[in-house]
Design brief:
single chain; alpha/beta; 2 domains
């Protein structure tokens, strides 16, 4: 960003500045997390985050998790938000800790670490139909059969309906799913179960089908709640930018740097979801915070409430 403007700054200086900015933005970040845990549906995903172990030249197998609350597809007027958390490992305990106090539906992939989260009953599992489609397609792409072709066609029919009802209120989405989608899903279930019984469990297509049948209740969840999505693409999109960018920065220099990155990424992604210019937002908000913005007015600085400086004068110095 700076280089594009013809400004050449030492990497160490940039790192210190980014750390300082992240520290100033931390109250905004924590407020986003707090608001997120009050929602009734969250999407989550993760990606690997190598973290350099000081003095060893080696890296820890860290992870970066994203949590997204975005119900615009069901007509919600609540602002969409996203936040990231860096951890030193990839374990379900990290998600349990982050979602303490959350009650509702968690839409995620089939990572076994999530299983303990669902045991208490406060958090319900909703699976990702796109994952099932991907697994079947991978087999179909290399070894197309009548079986895989039929399964792909059934899933595509479900998605065509979802495209038509996107943006409608939950009640209307639910009615359409009951009338049009349930018969398709039931037919798909019958096909997966019947055909899987006649296949070797070692066959690639059998493994793909088994992924669906073992988690069928979670795959079915969206048929009974108009707010839910059939998949977890909302979280996958939010994590993709970091995954692609990771090819450039490779690893975090230490865990503190990883945490700072999570803060800044959360602000940028939430701004993007709210159609706010992230660069202008951070420049303005950081200046306000530096000028002793009152802690009682943090909500005014949330990306979805943000207005430009000329419309909201900086508070007078104490």
């Amino acid at each position: 960003m700076m280089a594009a403007k013809g400004v050449d700054i030492e990497r160490s200086t940039l790192a210190r500045s980014a750390g300082y900015a992240a520290a100033l933005l931390d109250p905004i970040y924590n407020r986003i997390r707090e608001i997120g845990r009050t929602r009734t549906k969250l999407h989550t995903d993760d990606t690997r985050l190598p973290i350099l172990a000081p003095g060893t030249g080696k890296t820890h197998k860290g992870a970066l998790w994203v949590y997204v609350a975005d119900d615009r597809n069901s007509g919600s007027q609540e602002p969409p938000i996203a936040w990231y958390r860096a951890t030193m490992g990839r374990a379900g305990e990290s998600v349990m800790s982050e979602l303490a106090g959350f009650a509702g539906t968690l839409q995620a992939d089939g990572f076994s670490g999530y299983n303990q989260i669902y045991k208490g009953g406060a958090i319900r599992e909703a699976a990702c139909l796109a994952h099932l489609r991907r697994k079947i397609f991978d087999v179909h792409d290399s070894q197309p059969t009548e079986l895989s072709t039929t399964a792909m066609a059934g899933i595509q029919a479900i998605y065509r309906i979802e495209e038509e009802i996107r943006g409608l209120p939950p009640a209307e989405r639910l009615a359409a799913r009951r009338r049009r989608t349930r018969p398709l899903v039931r037919a798909l279930r019958r096909q997966l179960t019947r055909q899987a019984n006649g296949l070797s469990r070692h066959a690639d297509i059998a493994k793909a089908f088994a992924y669906g049948t073992k988690r069928w209740r979670a795959f079915n969840r969206f048929l009974y709640d108009g707010k839910l999505e059939p998949d977890n693409l909302i979280a996958e999109r939010a994590i993709r930018g970091f995954t692609v960018g990771g090819r450039n920065w490779v690893f975090s220099g230490n865990f503190t740097a990883a945490e700072r990155s999570a803060v800044v990424l959360s602000i940028i992604e939430t701004c993007k979801l709210c159609s706010v210019d992230a660069e202008a937002y951070m420049a303005d908000v950081i200046e306000r915070i530096q000028n002793d913005w009152p802690a009682s007015r943090w909500d005014e600085l949330m990306p979805w409430n943000w207005v430009r400086r000329q419309e909201m004068p900086l508070p007078l110095a104490a």
